[in-house]
Amino acid sequence: MGNTPFIAVRASRPLSEIEFCAWVAQAAPGDRLEYHRGFLVLDIFPMLGRLGDREREELARLGSRAFWAAEQGLVHLVQERVGPDRFAYIAVARPKPKHAAASLSALLLEEQAA
Asked: Are strands 32-38 and 9-10 parallel, antiparallel or unpaired?
């Protein structure tokens, strides 16, 4: 039995928080999505990043949502170094929790109500 190569789908453009949520909702266990490439903590910092305000805010929302999805047990978050101070940020879909009869939308609505 051979090793399965680590292959992640890489977005051709920056992902939005909504697109990330849509991917999480439909991803099969083991599916991988590269949701950002760069240095996330610096890319969302106003003085250091090269992004405009709107792009930086969307990236911050995306990073927060990815962390939230990991806390909910929906994905594993991993990083791969691709160069000096440059990383691929990858979400790996986990099996949906057994208690998750509720959909991702229900979890998101519950979060907003809290």
From this structure: parallel
